[in-house]
Amino acid sequence: ELSVVQWSSSGGLVAYSDSRSQPVNKNDGQKKKVVVLGTGWAGTSFLKDLDASMYDVQVVSPRNYFAFTPLLPSVTCGTVEARSIVEPVRNIIKKRNGEIQFWEADCLKIDAENNKIFCKANFDNNTVGSEEFSLEYDYLVVAVGAQVNTFNTPGVKENCHFLKDLEDAQRLRRTVIDCFEKAVLPDLTEEERRTNLHFVIVGGGPTGVEFAAELHDFLIEDLVNIYPTVKDLVKISVVQSGDHILNTFDERISSFAEQKFSRDGIEVQTGCRVVSVSDKEITMKMKPTGELCSIPHGLVLWSTGISTRPVVKDFMEQIGQGKRRILATNEWLRVKETENVYALGDCATIDQRKIMDDIVAIFEAADTDNSGTLTMVEFRAVVDDIIARYPQVETYLNNQHLGDLTDLLKDAMSEDKKEVDIEGFKKAIHLVDSQTTSLPATAQVAGQQGKYLAKCFNRKNQCKEHPEGPRRFAGPGGTRHFFAPFRYKHFGQFAPLGGEQAAAELPGDWVSMGHSTQWLWYSVYASKQVSWRTRMLVVSDWTRRFIFGRDSSRI
Prior knowledge:
Elements: E1 4-7, E2 22-23, E3 33-37, H1 41-49, E4 56-61, E5 65-67, H2 72-76, E6 86-88, H3 89-93, E7 100-104, E8 106-111, E9 116-120, E10 132-136, E11 139-142, E12 147-148, H4 156-159, H5 166-183, H6 190-196, E13 198-202, H7 206-226, E14 235-240, H8 251-264, E15 267-270, E16 272-277, E17 281-286, E18 292-296, E19 299-302, E20 306-307, H9 310-318, E21 327-329, E22 341-343, E23 348-350, H10 359-366, E24 373-375, H11 376-389, H12 391-399, H13 407-410, E25 419-421, H14 422-429, H15 443-458, H16 460-465, E26 493-498, E27 501-506, E28 510-514, H17 515-527, H18 532-548
Parallel strand pairs: 1-3, 1-4, 1-11, 2-10, 3-11, 4-7, 11-22, 13-14, 13-19, 14-15, 21-23
Antiparallel strand pairs: 5-6, 8-9, 9-10, 12-20, 16-17, 17-18, 24-25, 26-27, 27-28
């Protein structure tokens, strides 16, 4: 059986003393220990679906709650209250079969060689006893997320706001109100008032765009009535290094968002790279001309991507992945170069195996008569295993509008023999790997990975006896993988644009924009809440905002 420990880190790497660390758990000889690091989307999804009665499960995270992060932009302006989108971890784990232990602490180091992690609790108040401890594991599930990527831009850490977790959203909300309160103080010049009310968003991705839209709604629906003397001095700017905002969406959505922002008076500056940020100015380099320009600001939100946390980076050095940018796993979410560590969510990426790496093994497996050539009948016998083992195959077929993998071989086969040799087989298949892509760092991906891994853990014993996965082409002949590899299913993505309008990219290349899409966004986000308690709180917050407006108190 298996034991699990879950862990999460806030990103700070703190020195620890091995002699002072206190071992917390010992293997009872019956259940294997699984340690899970993190209580974000991936970790929480894993815990909710895991049959904890099979394992000795422990969870480590610096936060004792799960936050519904897609609604963080709504928290920044009071559309939704912070406590409405969080669910205590202990509420979640107490509903599981079996016992799950939770420790509120940072993971400082993963000792891959000795199957141990070192942790430290960080409490503001003085506590009795040691705050450092260690945990042993049989299986480790790393779901610690990622940290904001500043690209080492001078002044970003000191002078910018971020929007990665709930504390960021609350801090941002207070600063927005502070900017307005500063602007209405007596004896300020108009230029000083304009500077205090210039809100700059660096990054034109979904987070930055949604914050800009929320801030604009907050302004025109609530703040113009509360601060009438400065309502005409407010300016919102979105700075994007690329040519368009929302460039990961369909170009129709990107164009719609830019047009709406233009109508709303939100300035979008594309082709600009930020080179430094001070407490009063942000300096940018215009890509087309190369000239530098500085603009004053009252608040800067930095929303330009993510990077690996120090504790994960240290772990990567230990296992020989030090030259990589992000932790690599195989298609079963097991960390490469390890046997008992899994990683999911934003902290890792799936290093998809290329079909050309196994092309000879696939050919030999299909060539059952050892003739040196493949017939269509022979190839069809392994088609299902190929599609299951290499997800890029299905993507390539869809993009090329091909009905079946066998269509790729028809052109390579000779007219008279209807057979193909190894060189013709390689020529027919070699373009398939061009469709190998990395999954986006989204809640949707992390949630699906957590569910998948929990299912694998729950069925570990059964699948060892009766494997469910595809055939092993590069391995012992005739054997199969225990599980089917992880396969991400995209259900679409939303981009709220303010004014009760939203854009959505849905499966099947469908694009929806406008007021009806906003109501679809409301229904989807309400249904995806982790509990009925948070679902009711979020819906009541939306209703309160419609009736009474947003709260502008600085709390």
